[in-house]
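Forwarding the complex inputs:
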Amino acid sequence: MVNSLIDQIVPAGIVPKQRVVDLFSGDTVDERWTLTETGSGSTAIADEINGGVVMTTGTTTNDNEVLSFNGIDQYAYDGSAFITVAKASSNTQTAKYIGLNSDGGAWGDDRYYFAENTSKGSNYNLTTFNSPNPGNVDSGIARDTSWHKFKAQIDTTSCRGWIDDVFVAVITGSSLPNAALEPRINIYTETTAAKTMNVRYYEAYNT
Amino acid sequence: MTDSVYDLLNPVGKTSQQRFWDTFTGSQLKSWWTFKNFAGSGTGAIDDSLDGGYKITTAGNTNDSSGIFTNDIRQFDPAAHVYTQVVKMSATTSIIQIGGLTNDDTLPWNNRISFFVNTGTNSSFNLITTNGGTSSVVASSISLDTSWHKARTEGRASSAILHLDDTLESVSTSNLPTVKCQQYLRVQTLTTATRSTSIRYMEVYNT
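Prediction (whole assembly, two chains):
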């Protein structure tokens, strides 16, 4: 038995690096997050069992909700990971992106994340970007409206992804990001109907 | 050794359920809490003392009462959760201290599972369950004191239990709540002097 939390996740002799854990519970979204909105959507802690934070878009095509760290980039493009537990209310005409990105509420030139949108087909995708080079690998896991655990980890040579603890994708090459990153949780509607995403866990850490 | 908090707390293959924790330290109470006065103008503040946590103090009239809630954001399942708190009360006379899960953040507290003391009627720490306004109180073997205690209440499909300082003390099978709940802690004075409760750890998760 060890006494500290950090001793259970960082080996002795290794100085712990930056980490964030958010459980999305309580009265309000923690003030560390910055909300960026296009349209008249909403983002709030859900009043439902296991609901986490609920993000709902407006009703104009491309309306979106973004939670970010407002340009505070503490996570390494060449040695970091993120884990999230999320679900979307619809698996059509909904675009959902969760991961690490280089530019606050806007899309940055560098990023890696799990994505789902119409242009990427009917499965979840692992995506990287190093402007102007995109990288994308189909996970083979069909999009649905159930809760899933998504994990991605990046190092100097690859970005790997897991869904529900099953390894699903790896990306190598010129699309791997090359700038410091921050958390990004993002949902778009691709139609004129509101779309909703729930997230009840987000963790990012440098490795 | 795992490298993530997530994998430390959740078995492989199981998607995590809703979780909340607070260690009640820093300059002020986190915004995920809502402080409420039910009678009188009580106060709450992070306590500037070793191991002090957060202290809620009532005003000084009989039945003045204050507490912290999550503003009716209810994410926890009364029939499938574990709630751990480290708390103490300022006196063993003329005080009600209660903390756990409740459906409402207002009187008359119709649905709850909580660690409970009412010195007007009890001489020991208790487990209380309430369904539809009818309560069952099951006493523990631990006499009242003003020391810190680790209290763990668990809600199961057909029972609720209380572990106090890691010993099973109380089991209730009556008046179990069935509606979604929020985390909370409340103190009430039963005399014309202030009473306080302090908390330095709270963790809740659905199982």
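The two ends of chain A are 24 Å apart (CA to CA).
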